[in-house]
């Protein structure tokens, strides 16, 4: 009987500890997204929360660096998805002109470069080189805008991935904001 009581008490203690970890992670996510969205559009806070929480690893995050890693992984996933959309359009020949085809191929290359920058930023996080984290994520953040500028410049073409690039741009800025707020320009409390 005593063994059963100990087992129940142990189970309750472990449940409380786990619930406490999740609550701490949620608080970290909310606080970090609040700081990141301070100078952004009103919808950015909700995008930040949703984007980070969709990754199951976020419930285990204990600090801003772990959240930054999660944000970078989300950005890599999103950039890979947009590249896949572009490659599908190219494969199925659903572009409107030869110029659109060329621009889509340019975008596909840009997405590959963006993923390379994001992957490098993960290495810089591990080595605590926060300035290079910022630089790498910033370079990746130019990818969706550069892709769109190719279409919207003098070419007067319509990008088939404008909405995807808009979301991608914002998803990439999330981990950059986390890193920037924590390590580049930390706020004095």
Automatic annotation (TrEMBL):
Keywords annotated in UniProt: Disulfide bond, Signal
Alphabetized GO MF terms: enzyme inhibitor activity
Occurrences of domain Pectinesterase inhibitor (ranges): 24-178
Range of residues in the leader sequence: 1-19
Pfam families per UniProt: PMEI
GO terms for cellular component: extracellular region
NCBIfam families associated with the record: PME_inhib
Entry similarity comment: Belongs to the PMEI family.
Protein name per its UniProtKB record: Pectinesterase inhibitor domain-containing protein
Gene source species: Microthlaspi erraticum
């Amino acid at each position: 009987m005593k063994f059963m009581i100990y087992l129940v008490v142990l189970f309750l203690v472990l449940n409380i500890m786990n619930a406490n970890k999740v609550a701490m992670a949620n608080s970290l996510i909310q606080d970090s997204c609040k700081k990141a969205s301070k100078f952004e559009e009103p919808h950015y806070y909700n995008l930040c929360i949703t984007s980070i929480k969709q990754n199951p690893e976020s419930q285990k995050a204990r600090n801003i660096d772990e959240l930054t890693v999660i944000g970078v992984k989300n950005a890599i996933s999103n950039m890979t998805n947009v590249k896949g959309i572009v490659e599908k359009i190219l494969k199925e020949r659903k572009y409107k002109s030869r110029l659109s085809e060329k621009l889509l191929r340019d975008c596909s290359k840009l997405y590959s470069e963006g993923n390379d920058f994001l992957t490098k930023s993960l290495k810089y996080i591990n080595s605590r080189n926060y300035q290079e984290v910022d630089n790498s994520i910033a370079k990746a953040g130019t990818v969706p805008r550069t892709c769109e500028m190719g279409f919207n410049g003098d070419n007067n073409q319509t990008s088939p991935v404008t909405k995807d690039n808009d979301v991608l741009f914002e998803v990439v800025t999330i981990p950059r904001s986390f890193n920037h707020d924590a390590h580049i320009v930390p706020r004095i409390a």
